[in-house]
Specification:
heterodimer; A: 510 residues; alpha/beta; Rossmann fold; four-stranded antiparallel sheet; 11 strands; globular; B: N-terminal domain of TfIIb; 4 helices; 30% helix; tRNA binding (chain A); Methyltransf_11 (chain A); Methyltransferase type 11 domain-containing protein (chain A); S-adenosylmethionine-dependent methyltransferase activity (chain A)
Amino acid sequence: MDEVTVRRSMTGSRSGDETAIEDEDHPTCPDCISRDRAPDMDKRDTDRRSTEEDAVSGDEKGRACPCATCCTPQCDMCHTEDSARSSRREEAAELQPLITPPIERKYVHRVYDTIAPHFSSTRFAKWPKVAQFLESLPVGSILADSGCGNGKYLGFNQGVFHLASDISPRLVKICSSRGYDVAIADSLCLPYRDDVCDGAICIAVLHHMSTEARRRQAILELVRVLKPGGKALITVWALEQEDPGLISKWTPLIKEEQWLESNPEVVHHRQYLAGSDVRHRSERPVIAGSHCDKKPAEEATAAGRERSPRREHETLQRGSHDKQQGRDEKDGKEGECETEDMTRSNGQRSGGLGGEAKPVEYFVPWHLPYHRAEIASALSMGEEESLGRRNDKKGAVVYDRYYHLFVKGELESLVRQVPEATVVDSFFDKSNCCIHQLDEYQSVVKSVADLAGAKGGPAAYRVHKMDQVHMPTYQVHKVDQVQTPVEEEKAKLMQKWGFSRGVLGGRYTC
Amino acid sequence: MRLLTHNMLTCNVKGVTKGYPLKIEAVRLEKKEAEFNPDFLRRIFPKLDWKALYETALSLDLDELPEQAEPSMLEDEAFLQKLHHVLLEVNLEEGALVCPETGRRFPVSKGIPNMLLNEDEV
């Protein structure tokens, strides 16, 4: 879990919307994407596009799912996919970061809507860094919780007024049933006026966004609603995990499996990334060596966006947020990308992540046990229409969730692209705390690796370790997803931290 | 949805410049008791758009609030009680929020406003 605390700077001109980042020389600004991509897309997709033009009536173009216009937040209409509309959406998503790409629509929004009650029943432990941040807000503060999920942080500081929102109607309904004011809204387009929040949190949300432009836009929105001098806390899943067994259970999007190859959302996403690779290197995922020479689309993608620690460290040292200097920094990065590309195309890899580039995009499974009530509709569906896959061995339907894991320094550099934001603190927490939380030392090692770059080493290491010693409760977060065989050890720790099986719903694994 | 939330909400459709405050089309309002916290109210007060709050309250037949409010009023317990009631106890359960510029309706169902936009609105 990579986390940064962002402070909105007190000075500087306010621009307020996405135009603020559309510098003419910005390497990945939304304008550039649309302008630069057009010729490529025309060439590649001429056939597909012309059939779609015929298939879609004029007034349907660019229209989203009908959910936004209907009156019920639990609308099932939003799950109906009209193929023509869907393909229009695909094209639009390539051009506009605010439009949800199909891969997120299906593998984030629909999945979370489907698993909402089960997901919520596993979400109660508060991460100490987040708790600390919330506690630091005085009475009468206004806090935006962007992507609030089941709202587990909403009642934490009773003196704070929350502006909570999530895109999943079913998760919002769960928050609402607990008495909180929550809106159904997109984190990339928050429905609040400018400068109203004293604080903002965006916990474990950005890694579900499939392009850099979208991840940046979400931060931009957080900063827009913050008053000058306000602070935001952002957390994301980190790529750097000590436990190699953990990520190996997930499916990299580049994996060549039939079900992935035939998945239109994945194919579209790959095409998008490959297309944007031509000019926009920062949109590319890192690809494992064994897959990088297979197909043209993948080859282009394989050029990778991994950042070596050396480079990240440099970025951190250039901690200036003066506009002109920020621009110079971007230019500098662009130059470095060129160099990396050349290196990469010669088949060499930087040794940034243990000597080998890792994929950054994954499908992370969610196991919804057969006995859950919400499973009934999934089981009655045919394979074609169902989101999930049956796994009789585990007695569960498996849902894939899209994740873009963050490499070291990526979150900070993303924040630095946002005008009016400065990184005031940055730390590395246990990778999503609890998936492999049992070995405390593993995550400490990780902390050293990250904090050494950010803060200069041993001191930060000790601080982080103390956190773990004194606040062990966060380590039991998300226990339902633990898939390790060490039940005994887990039970011992659970007992030590005062959690009973009853509290956790009787299951540690799924 | 409480009126304090409403005071912060705005129409976020692209190109809209006067999307605030959203007009409330109330089908059902509900009063839900909330804990009275004068300190909270005093600190929230400077963040409020008073004109929007006053007009919205008026449109819902809540005529307790004065048209103009000064920080000095925050020492007045009676004023704080009224403010508390309007901000935190009146809930819009069913209805809609309407953009003053475009007329775009954001439905509110079971107290939840749906602020999602269509793709041609972002």
